[in-house]
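Hello again, I could really use a second opinion on something today. I've dropped the whole record in just underneath, so have a look.
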Amino acid sequence: MSRHIASPERPVGAPERTASARRPLVYVNVRFFAVPLLYAAVTVAPLARGLFFEPDLLPAQVVVAALFVLAVADRWLRQRSQQEAQAALRFGSEPMDWAAAVLALLYAASFWVAADRRAALAGALRYATYAMVYLAAAYLADERGARKRLLRAVWLGGLPVVAFAVGSALRLPWLAFPGGYVDGRFLSTFQYPNALAAYLMLLILLGLGLWSAERSRVWRAVYAVGSASYLMVFLGTGSRGAWTIFPFALAALVAGAEPAERWRLFYHVVITLGVGALGSTRFVPAVEAGMRGRSAAILAGVVVAALALEVGGRWVRGAVERRVERGEVGLTTVLALRWLGALYGLAVAGSIAAYAQGALPSALAGFLPQGAVSRVQSISFTSDSLLTRLLASRDAWRLALTHPWLGLGAGGWNALYHTVQSALYWTTEVHNQFFQTLVETGFPGFLAYLALWGGAAWAVVRVARRLRPWRWQPGERARGSSRRELRELRHEAGSWNLIWAVAVALLAMAAHSAMDFDLSLPAIALLVWVLFGWLRALATETTGPAIRFAAGWPVPLGTLGVLALAAAVAYPSLRLDEAGQVGAQAARAMSQRKYAEAVSGFERASQLDPWTASFDADRSQILAAAAAEARSRGQLGTAARLAVAARQAAFEAERVQPYNLPVRSELIQTYTFLDDPASAAEQALAVVRLVALDPQAYETAATVLLNSAMAELASGDRAQGLQLARQLGQLAGMWRQAASQANRRLDPAVHPRPDPTPPPELLLAQGQSAYLLGQWEEADRLFHGLLQASGDARTVTGRPGVSTLVAGQAAIWWAASLTWQEVRASAAQPASAQEAAAVGARRSLVGVLLRSAESRLAGAQAAYMSAVSAHVGEGAVWGR
């Protein structure tokens, strides 16, 4: 019985490739260099902290640019003629091609309207890198064997990641990674448990597909041991989002598998992965108890058990198949065994569901470590983590509506999310890759990103139509097929299972990236785009719309385009990497008090990377400090020159990244050194406007404004001093307005609303402002209220209480207010007997307040108390 077996790399009905068609244009084996480079990219990237930090990412982008050039060269050189090369290199035959290109172009275009051009440039380079690795993977995975080897390389990349996780837990000197195991959770080289969980979830699903498609007994054993180890670490990450998605992904993987192989896959999932789950219940508690020897023994037991079950299971399956072939066991018995296995799985799931309400911890204790059990219990639709992420997604939508066409560029969320947030939270990422793309590239980029995932799904659908895996049923052998044909059918079924595993892995990653920032780690994003390229290589047909090179000169045009794209990524990456290294050297020189060397280094770094404000901010601070020192020595000319240079650097830093909060805070110190209190106050107010719901920002601004106002009044600039005093008093109103606006956007049944009542620090600032402006009754009322609240558990603000520090400061300022009122009254007219009694009572109260302040303030506040008390004793007010 003969049967046509469709090949995934050749559409049904397509002509066979002859030997002459495989002769290359030039006999240069570029693939010998390109393929190892691709394998290195997917295996080494997870070890470099997920490429989340630019010192790791920028060199990797240069490597991918070189890989792209080599992949295109290999694709062209392997063709028989220029016409075939032109067809092989064409672009646009797949929807994913257009989506990848449009997305990269939109990230590049958003640079010109970006809120943070430095971050936007990094994002444009990153997405161009993803597009290049996508095409490189598609070009190099053009044959069945190449595709399988590529997925194997991706899967093998998880072994060192797991080794570092386990080594960090066991504190092995040669395998411990900084931050690889913290508080009973695995972080490994990603240094973030949720990203590690998403990565391992992807690899476990791929490993199951590879196991199903593998003929080699050795590789099947490797996949079994690796999958069990991956699951053990996966459960130890404590990632509730990944735990929620993973069972559904496993169910989808088994349900969509080819029927002839579905039961094998089901047994492998239940048995092999069960070993990893049981090992996790023993390994993590042993590590936490400090029993390194027992932990190592448990790890060895997991490896041995997974290997034994794989080998033993294969032997049992072979024995059953042989008995079926000899007619000793009928298909009814086989089906009964399968249904018994299914009932076992349902029984386990049912027992867990039955105990979900009251006995979930005890039901799961045999399958999960205790830390994992507690985190399973904490999975809830009302958890703070989930609510914050939903709130961030809603704020991202509101932010995107303000810039719908080109977005805010990469990094736009981190620059501006404080301005639209409905409650105070801190996150540099949206924790939703779809909405993050919406913020960064607007609705066109959002649609392109959806089209990328949709193109991948369409590729899987087309492959499914071509292979039609569901046509082979369990009774095929009984209908007369030979054993050889059954092996061929099983091999093709395994090919479909592998394709389906890739699809399910991508689907699981898409679901998890909608609740976390996995794809903000370029190492994971690179793997996803490699899988996109893998599907593109599998699904590409010989017909379809495409951009073709002009006839007669494909080589010049193609070469220029490829080299231009590679150079557009490699050159800026090298330049930014050099700037980072120079800036790091300058920072070291600054810490060693080599200020001249530091200034020169920061200036050089700024020339290499003119979009990073921290280089200019650091330089301005050094120059401002030097100007202050020169001024104290009487070197006025030198001080003036240094001050001008410091101001220019500060202005440039503010211009380049106006929404950079750390830079703004650094510029406050710069202007303090320059004896420019008005500019320091302006920077502090800018921080408040950017982070309108952060009490700490208001407290900092209050301190800066108070010091600036007193400095201006002391210097004789009464108008400027009083203006700063008014701004000091407006901070409390700014807080009320920001909190009230946030309250209107929040559902009190879901999210706690911020208290519009100003914090005690702002009430103190409002009283200090009233004092400086001569509004004595208002000042006395505020200071008196703070002192009363300091002894009241309920407090005037409803917060945990007025701190001792605030109460002590309020006592001093109230004493100053009362003393100054006495000075003014005595200067206006002679005191009557009644007024003399009031003066005596006031003086007595002043003494009580000073003693109260002295008892409340100590240590670092002693100097503050002495300074204000001196003004109280003299009966003086700044600027009066």
Remarks:
- The first helix runs from residue 31 to 44.
- The two ends are 108 Å apart (CA to CA).
